[in-house]
Design goal:
The protein has eight helices and no strands. By secondary structure, it is mostly helical.
């Protein structure tokens, strides 16, 4: 469902319910068909629930988008460091097959988050654990501090990814809750409109007060 369509449906329901509750003529006519004030308040409760969950769904998607942007920023920063370090390591260790294998320098970098994280974590952990590799990299300006900076940046990507996935799940849950509440409201409103057309059949101006346009007869 598109949000603008949902907003329109909620507004229509709100107008119909509030005008029915505040117009005594309409309320009296509807009451003869079972839509007395308690019944109308039942519909208003459904509206408030759907409206609240609609706002919550928008908030959760806003949180998801913010988490995605934070993840993209963290990934761009960490990947720039990682790729630079890999390129220099390939030069520094080009004759050391064992070290190259230890750092997984051969082949393309993984494109998935899980694959990239596995490669990057392994690279920094193994580089920092080997005095031989540290010495070779230091000749090309890659110090322990720079490797630790890269490792921290990779850890930030992992943290950001966990947060983004959490926000994504919460947004999906909020959407399901919103849709269920909206469906319940729309079912109630459908019956309400059908009854209103009957109760106010000869009072088209009152139907219009509810936002209901009576179809013209051919």
């Amino acid at each position: 469902m598109k949000n603008n369509t949902i907003d329109a449906k909620l507004l229509s329901a709100q107008v119909a319910l509030e005008n029915a509750l505040h117009n005594e003529t309409i309320k009296t006519s509807l009451g003869e068909y079972g839509y007395d004030e308690p019944k109308l308040n039942e519909g208003l409760t459904l509206f408030n629930d759907a409206y609240t969950k609609h706002l919550d769904q928008k908030k959760e998607y806003g949180d998801q988008y913010a988490a995605t942007d934070a993840l993209d920023t963290a990934m761009d920063h960490a990947n720039a460091l990682y790729i630079r370090h890999v390129k220099i390591a390939r030069i520094a260790l080009r004759t050391d097959r064992g070290a190259s294998a230890t750092l997984e320098l051969d082949g393309r970098r993984k494109q998935t988050y899980s694959g990239w994280l596995k490669q990057a974590r392994l690279f920094y952990a193994n580089a920092l654990a080997s005095t031989q590799i540290l010495s070779a990299l230091a000749h090309f300006g890659i110090t322990t501090e720079k490797l630790e900076e890269g490792q921290a940046a990779v850890a930030q990507v992992e943290t950001s990814l966990v947060q983004q996935l959490r926000e994504k799940g919460e947004a999906q849950n909020a959407t399901e809750a919103r849709d269920e509440a909206l469906d319940a409201l729309m079912d109630w409103v459908a019956d309400f409109i059908a009854i209103a057309r009957i109760a106010l059949e000869h009072k088209p101006q009152l139907l219009e007060n509810l936002g209901i346009i009576q179809p013209s007869e051919a």
